[in-house]
Amino acid sequence: MRLSVSKRMPSTASLDRLAADNRLRGFGGYKPESSHVVRQADVTGQSYAEQVKRTKEMLRSMTPEKALEVIEFHKGLTFFEALALAKREGSIIVPNFVHDGILTETTDHEYLKQNYPVWTGTSVIYEAPDKKFRDIITFGWDHNKINYSISFKVPEQFRGKANSALVVEHPDFYMVDSGNNKYELKLLEGANIHLIEHFPKKEGWYMPHAETMIPQGEQVIESEKTRNLWRSVNPYLGPLVRGVVVLYRRRLVDADYGHDGAFGVALMPLATAEK
Length: 275
Description:
- Helix 4 packs across helix 6 (96-105).
- The strands form two sheets. Strands 1, 2, 3, 6, 9, 10, 11, 12, 13, 14 and 15 form an eleven-stranded mixed sheet that branches.
- 36% of the residues are buried.
- The chain has seven helices and 15 strands.
- It is an alpha+beta fold.
- The protein is globular and about 40 Å long.
- The chain starts with a helix and ends in a 6-residue tail after the last strand.
C-alpha cells in the first residue's frame, strides 16, 4: 500500500531511504498501553474537557512565533510512544493546523531542520478512492510475514459516504491493544469529528480545509495557498506527518505513514480554562 520512495522525492535520496526504512519496520516489541485516556486531578475547578478546549483555543489564536515559545519538541518516537509521552506529560499533541503555520511562515531554516518531521495530533481516516465507509475500517500491513492492523468503528452517521475523510484531534482519540498484533483506534465520548467531503482521490495540490489545513476538493495548480497531499490508494487511519524533507516541501501534508516510523512530536501543556 505504500508509495514508491523514488516517486516521492528523487532529489532527496537519503531522507527517502530513511522514510522507507520507517515504513518497513515492525513495532519492534513496543505495545501501546491498553488505554491512553488522560484524566488529571481537577485542582482548578475546570474539567479536563474544558482544559483541552482552552488549550486548543490558545493554540489557534497564536502566531507561529508565539506557538514556538510554548510547545516542546521531542525526537525519535513511534506514534504509540508519542501518545504515551503525551499521557505522562499531561499534554496534547500539537495539531496539524499549528504545524502548518510554523512550516509555512517560519524563516529559521535550521530550527525547522532540527525539529521536523513530526507526528501531528491530527488523525485522519479514509477509505480507498470511490469506496464507501462501512461500519469498520481497517489499516493493515505485513512485516516479516506478520500481519499488523489497526481498526476503527465508523460512527453511523458517516457510513455510506465515499471520497471523504474523518478527522479527529488528540486527545479525542486513543489506541487499544486488542492482542495478536491488532489495535483499535477509539474516540472519547463527545469527541469532535470533522467530516472532510471531496477528500482527494490522488496525490497532488489542493486548497486546504480551513479548520484543519488538510487538502480537499479539486486538484489545482500549485501556489502559496495550496497544500500537497500524499495519500494511499488503500484505506488508512492514523496521524498526519508534517515536515518531511522540510526545506523542500513545507506545504506537504502526509496522510500515509506507518505508526512505527521514528519522528518527532510537539507537545503543549494543558491550559486552565477561563471561568
